[in-house]
Structures are given as structure tokens and as C-alpha cells.
Design brief:
Sodium/glucose cotransporter; 22 helices; glycoprotein; sodium transport; mainly alpha; membrane
Length: 606
């Protein structure tokens, strides 16, 4: 498939399109600036001489750069390439994923962040040892390492594909270049370099997308003409309230299933928690989580608008149908080189935007992987000096860079869209991790045996459904179905579902929307974990470490008390009892009136 990607550049009889000098300059400036930031923090301040500075920036970060870094970490090249292609093919239904950002950020801000910050953790998986035991901590750490290494394969491969498409640069040479630049500034500059390069790269991302949108609207004939084209083409989707969980994108899969995905990313993922813990205060950590919300909404808006602009320019004459490209994930690249070729510098700016997104994601992964390996797997078993520990942490970041580059080849073999592949990986592996933390935080009765058994069951369920669904689609041929703004059950790049009947049995489970993976897998962990805990003897309240369980009942009672709070003058115990008695009597009287009315109505209609 990749060999055919060079068809993207065959846009005129003269042959392949290449970068102009301006494009190369813009792209080179991105790499130079990223490296410069890494070198700056490598030779200033504490010179990354301690693990505290290398891993947590001396806990001195402010909320604004942290919020941009939190957004950039998982809004990678996956979103920049995948989301516009999704909107072009299936309309704006995917835009409703923005609804899940509310709960997906409020819950971490009020539950996960305060708990982790007050426990003074250096790795989020230390919580698992405090709450359960060391074995559970190691299981969580190993699962996270697997998750991030696989995901980084997607992160490295995506911009390499872009560079190969627009410049003819060798695909695997681009993979190596991406991994090398990112690994160097991560290993040299530590978390400070990662966060501040994220800030710089976020600006480049937004600038590149905005420039492409503005020029694309101009090419489509103006804002009003572009709107008429996308409206008449049926790409403005309404709310699809179809409760069928096998439909890829509905309001429920995006708005509800997406909450679990967000919690696995912004609640318990080491890459994000590490940023929260690097804040100067708990208040700033919570505020940085709040500030992620508008950043994510802007990123989602730009990606969706790019998809609409692409449709305004091409209409139903899809380059995929014309066989100019082999996958809808190449749509954005084709659009940039086809429609914007008369604007020197824009192709370079967009590829810089794409590379920025990827570098921010990969660098965060390298830093977090080095941290958990050092803190959770090495330090507890080997004593060493601070200088030696810091050097080993940098070597670990370098090693993970090499491993993640190798994983890009696995992504190359996957028969799925980039967006769906990335989110499926996080749902398959991030879901069980989310369930493990929820089991410990919300259920004081859960014990260590139940935690390990629940995590194992969640991972089995994850790979059973994920791999089973992948294999069940392999024999089918790829087809492009006519557009239906409310029926978006399959991507163009995956086997199309011809039969409208709802799948039954195992096929129904395998057809589950990838947006429900996190919810299914985390629920499996909690359910199995609780069952095993009760079978083996639940944990007693006195045996639970202080600060490791969220007081659900106490919080609910406090909230209820605020909702039905008595007047300020009734603050004495006698007045409180009298108020409670009066409130109860009123409820009984109201219930009696309701029953009388119900009897009268029944008598009237009998």
C-alpha cells in the first residue's frame, strides 16, 4: 500500500511534486527549533543533573504551558490526518466527540489529580502499590509500557508517510529522522524540553491547519459557497441517537464511550499524570486540566473544518474513487499538494504542522516510558547514586526511541485507518488500566487478588474483541459505500458492511464500535475484580492506606446536603432537627397528595 502512496504526487503530466526551497526552509526551522529547545534546557538551570529535574522539571511548571502540552500529547498527527478524512467521508458526526471532553476532564480534575498530587507520587503506578501490592504495580507498569510502545508506532509512522508523500523522501529514512530528532531533545532536555517544545509545536500545528483552511476556503469560492457545498452534500450531520453500539459514530458512542477513552488518557495515563505532578501546586495542576478543554475544542474544530473544506473543494469526486490515492488517510496530504501547490511554503508549513503533532506525542511517550521504567522497575531493586540514576533515565529514553521506531513497521502492516488504529490501541490497553485504577479508587473492598484477576480479564477481553474484530473484517474486500450522513458504520478504509441487519452472537461483539472499547474493558476489570475480591475475602477498611480511596458516599452526602441546605438561621442542632422533621413531613404530605390525585384520576377513567 505504501508503495502506491507516491501516486499522491502525480497531479500533473510532468510527474512528481517536490518541496520548494521555502518549504524546505520552513520544515528545517521546525526541526532546528525543537532541537534548540532541548539543548537550551540541557545546558541551563540544573542541566538535567537530577532525576527530579529530568522527570518532573523540579515541579516548577505553570498551568498554561502544561495545558498546551497536555493537549498536544495525544492530539497528534493521528488527529490531523484522521479527523479531516473522517469528516470528508462521513460528515460532522465525529465532531460530537467534543461532548465527552466535559466529563472526561472534570472527573480527573476533581478526583484523580487531587488524589495523586496529595500522595506525592513520582509514578502513577506507585498508587497501585499503596492501594494493593507491588505485584499489581508491576502489572500496571508493564501494561502501560506495552500500550505506549505500540501507540508510538502510529505516532512515528504517520509523519513519515507525510514526508514520503510530499517530498519523495524514503519512508523508513523519514521514520529514522523522526525518531532521532525526538529522542535527542527528549534525552537531553528532560520534561522541561518536552513541555516547551510541545508549546512551540502546538502553535505550529494551529498555524498550519488554519493556513490550509483559509486557502482551501478561497479555492472553494469563498465562505458562503463552501458552506452551500458541504450543506448540499450532506456533510452537516445531525445528532444520531441510534443506541446500537455496533455503529461506529453516534452521539452515544462518542459522547458516552468517549468519556472512558478520555479518562484513560487524561486521568490515569503516566504521560499526562507526570505533567500534573510537575505543577508548582495542586491548584495549578487542576487549572491546567481545566484549560485543556478549550484547547481540545479548538484542535477538534480545526480538524473538522479541514474535512469540510476538503469536501467543498472536491465534492463527491473523491480522489480515492479516482484512484489517485489508496486510503482515505492520504486525503489530507493529497489536498495540500493538489489545491495548495500554487502557494509556496504552505506544503512545508503543513508538513511541519504534522511533524510538530507527532514530535509532541512521541517525546511525551519517551519521557514517561523512561520514568516508569526507572521508578517502578529499576529503583526499587537497585540502589544507585542520583547522577547514575539520571544517566540511566536518559539512556532509557534513548532505548525506547529505538524500540518505538521498530514498532512503526508493525503499524505499516495494519489494515485500518490511522485514526481508528490509534484509538483502538488506547481503548484495548488503556481501558483495562482505567478499570484497575477505578477499582482501587472507588471500591475500598477490592483486594490485590481481585485487582490482578480483573486486569488479566480486562486484557483478555480487550484483545479478544479487538483482534477478533480485526480478523473478522480481513476476508472482506474494501468497498466505498454511498454516503449516508446518519449511517457511518464503517470507514472507507475498512471492509464495508453491506448487510444492514444488526450482527448477532460473537459477530455482534466483534462489530462493537471502537469507541466502546475503553468502557467495555474497564467495566470488565471492575466487575471481575469485585467478584474475585468477595470470593477471596474483601479488604477491610482499616487495611486500606490513607488517601488511596475516594470518599464516594461522603461526597454524595455533602452534595445532597448542599442541595437541600436549611436556612442560615437554623444552624443550631435543635433547629437542624426541627428543619429535618419539617422537611420529612412535607415530603410525606406531598406523597399523600400525589396518591389522592392518582386515585381520583383512576376513578375518573375507570
Amino acid at each position: 500500500m505504501i508503495g502506491k502512496v507516491l501516486q499522491i504526487l502525480s497531479m500533473d503530466p510532468t510527474g512528481q511534486k517536490y518541496f520548494t526551497i521555502i518549504d524546505y526552509v520552513i520544515f528545517a526551522l521546525l526541526l532546528v527549533a525543537s532541537m534548540a529547545i532541548g539543548l537550551y534546557y540541557a545546558f541551563t538551570g540544573g542541566r538535567q543533573s537530577t532525576t527530579q529535574e529530568f522527570m518532573y522539571a523540579d515541579r516548577s511548571m505553570k498551568c498554561l504551558p502544561l495545558s498546551l502540552s497536555l493537549m498536544a500529547t495525544f492530539q497528534s498527527a493521528v488527529a490531523i490526518i484522521g479527523t479531516p478524512a473522517e469528516v470528508y467521508a462521513n460528515g460532522t458526526q465525529y465532531w460530537f466527540i467534543g461532548c465527552c471532553y466535559i466529563l472526561g476532564l472534570l472527573i480527573p480534575a476533581h478526583i484523580f489529580i487531587p488524589m495523586f498530587y496529595r500522595l506525592h507520587l513520582t509514578s502513577v503506578y506507585q498508587y497501585l502499590e499503596l492501594r494493593f501490592c507491588k505485584a499489581v504495580r508491576i502489572c500496571g507498569t508493564v501494561t502501560f509500557i506495552f500500550q505506549m510502545v505500540v501507540y508510538m508506532g502510529v505516532g512515528i509512522y504517520t509523519p513519515a508517510l507525510a514526508l514520503n508523500a510530499v517530498t519523495g523522501f524514503h519512508l523508513w529514512g523519514a521514520v529514522l529522522a523522526t525518531g532521532l530528532v525526538c529522542t535527542l531533545y527528549t534525552a537531553l532536555g528532560g520534561l522541561k524540553a518536552v513541555v516547551w517544545t510541545d508549546v512551540f509545536q502546538t502553535v505550529v500545528m494551529f498555524t498550519g491547519q488554519l493556513a490550509v483552511i483559509i486557502v482551501g476556503v478561497h479555492q472553494a469560492g469563498g465562505l458562503s459557497d463552501a458552506w452551500v457545498k458541504v450543506r448540499d452534500g450532506g456533510r452537516i450531520s445531525g445528532i444520531d441517537l441510534n443506541p446500537d453500539p455496533t455503529v461506529r459514530h453516534t452521539f452515544w458512542t462518542l459522547g458516552v464511550g468517549g468519556v472512558f477513552l478520555m479518562l484513560s488518557l487524561y486521568g490515569v495515563n503516566q504521560a499526562q499524570v507526570q505533567r500534573y505532578l510537575s505543577s508548582r501546586t495542586e491548584k495549578e495542576a487542576v487549572m491546567s486540566c481545566y484549560m485543556v478543554f478549550p484547547c481540545l475544542q479548538v484542535a477538534l474544530m480545526l480538524s473538522c473544518l479541514m474535512g469540510l473544506v476538503m469536501f467543498a473543494c472536491y465534492g463527491n469526486n473523491s480522489p480515492l474513487e479516482q484512484q489517485y490515492i489508496t486510503s482515505k488517510d492520504q486525503m489530507v496530504l493529497y489536498f495540500v499538494m493538489d489545491m495548495l501547490q500554487n502557494f509556496p511554503g504552505l506544503p512545508g508549513l503543513f508538513v511541519a504542522c504534522l511533524f510538530s503533532a507527532s514530535l509532541s506525542t512521541i517525546s511525551s511517550a519517551f519521557n514517561s516510558l523512561a520514568t516508569v521504567t526507572m521508578v517502578d522497575l529499576i529503583k526499587p531493586h537497585y540502589s544507585m547514586t542520583e547522577a547514575r540514576a539520571t544517566l540511566l533515565s536518559k539512556m532509557l529514553a534513548l532505548s525506547y526511541g529505538i524500540i518505538c521506531v521498530a514498532m512503526a513497521y508493525v503499524v505499516h502492516l495494519m489494515n485500518s485507518s490511522v485514526l481508528q488504529a490509534a484509538l483502538s490501541i488506547f481503548g484495548m490497553v488503556g481501558g483495562p488500566l482505567l478499570g484497575l485504577f477505578c477499582l482501587g479508587i472507588f471500591f475500598p473492598c477490592a483486594n490485590s487478588i481481585g485487582a490482578v484477576a480483573g486486569l488479566a480479564a480486562g486484557l483478555v477481553m480487550a484483545f479478544w474483541v479487538g483482534i477478533g474484530g480485526f480478523l473478522s473484517r480481513m476476508p472482506s474486500s474494501v468497498q466505498v459505500l454511498p454516503f449516508n450522513s446518519t449511517n457511518t458504520s464503517e470507514n472507507i478504509t475498512v471492509p464495508a458492511v453491506i448487510d444492514a441487519a444488526r450482527p448477532a452472537g460473537l459477530n455482534g461483539l466483534y462489530s462493537l464500535s471502537y469507541m466502546w472499547y475503553s468502557a467495555l474493558n474497564s467495566s470488565t476489570v471492575v466487575l471481575i475484580g469485585l467478584i474475585i475480591s468477595f470470593m477471596t475475602g474483601p479488604t477491610k477498611g482499616d487495611d486500606v492506606a490513607s488517601g488511596t480511596v475516594y470518599p464516594v458516599m461522603r461526597t454524595a452526602q455533602s452534595l445532597l446536603h448542599k442541595l437541600v441546605k436549611p436556612s442560615a438561621c437554623c444552624t443550631s442542632p435543635e433547629h437542624t432537627v426541627r428543619w429535618s422533621y419539617g422537611f420529612t413531613v412535607k415530603c410525606i404530605v406531598a406523597l399523600g397528595h400525589f396518591n389522592v390525585v392518582k386515585l381520583l384520576l383512576a376513578d375518573r377513567w375507570s
